[in-house]
Design goal:
275 residues; 13-stranded antiparallel beta sheet; 20% helix; alpha+beta; 5 helices; 4-stranded antiparallel beta sheet
Length: 275
């Protein structure tokens, strides 16, 4: 995983990316062939906002193939973000003239994701990058790359130019990670985890910290004694946070004490921060 100031990318995200791509290529291989699966695309055009071909991803791919991908995506979100599910993902195709103008995605979910099936290394078009306005960022949709960012950031997709062939365009699965709550492995029980977190955060203790707005996902390594061995940041999408205050929060969390157990536990804790 490569975490930047305002986004995160995970390359080589899914082992069966090629199988998903083959489904798409096969259906568009012969433009003269009429088949039901070719008639599922919505040309979504909102003047000044969106121009794209889209279809529900979970209906487009064979069920067994899509279910494997969905399980992998959800497992990643739980283990690394503390988000327990995803919104129903879209499959979007960008050809000549397709784009997304600058916008925000609120209140769809705490984290937006874009998973690319684009043949980026051999692309025959210009544009197609996800852009974030501030700080100015361009994210290339390399094949099998998962990109995450705070949907409150003003973002969009640069206009695709140079191809009308769907097989040569920008192809992505996208949506939002949702349902943030603690996720852990090890012997700790639900009521024990919630009790420690609830007591630690009681009294709105975070109100004195300048944490901005967004999601901060922390990973706790918890020793059998219940003491925290290490707290690390898995993902930080906070907008307008003070770096020193974030560090103070991490130090504070490192002093939490969980119940004594026979073995270690690993906890992913998502903290949603509102202005």
């Amino acid at each position: 995983m490569h975490c930047r100031v305002n986004y995160l990318t995970v390359d080589s995200f899914y082992s069966r990316a090629a199988q998903l791509r083959k489904v798409f290529d096969k259906r568009f291989k012969n433009p003269l062939r009429s088949a039901p699966e070719r008639f599922v695309w919505d040309y979504w055009h909102v003047p000044g906002e969106y121009t794209v071909l889209r279809t529900p991803a979970y209906h487009y791919f064979p069920k067994s193939e899509y279910d494997r991908f969905h399980r992998h995506l959800v497992r990643f979100g739980r283990e690394n973000l503390g988000c327990h599910d995803v919104s129903p993902p879209w499959l979007s195709c960008y050809v000549e003239g397709c784009r997304q103008e600058p916008h925000q995605d609120l209140p769809h979910g705490p984290l937006a994701f874009v998973y690319s099936l684009t043949d980026w290394e051999r692309k025959k078009f210009r544009g197609g990058e996800t852009f974030i306005v501030k700080p100015r960022t361009l994210i290339e949709p390399h094949f099998n790359r998962l990109t995450l960012f705070n949907p409150a950031l003003v973002h969009g997709v640069r206009t695709v130019k140079g191809t009308h062939d769907p097989r040569h365009g920008r192809l992505v699965i996208h949506g939002w990670f949702v349902n943030p709550r603690p996720f852990w492995t090890g012997p700790l029980q639900v009521e024990e985890v919630h009790a420690v977190i609830g007591e630690a955060l009681a009294g709105n203790i975070l109100s004195g910290l300048r944490l901005g707005q967004g999601l901060l996902s922390l990973r706790f390594q918890i020793q059998p004694s219940g003491r925290v061995k290490r707290v690390s940041v898995l993902f930080n999408s906070l907008i307008g946070a003070n770096a020193n205050d974030v560090e103070d929060l991490i130090k504070f969390a490192g002093n939490w004490i969980f119940p004594h157990k026979a073995t270690c536990s690993k906890l992913t804790l998502p903290l949603m921060v509102s202005p």
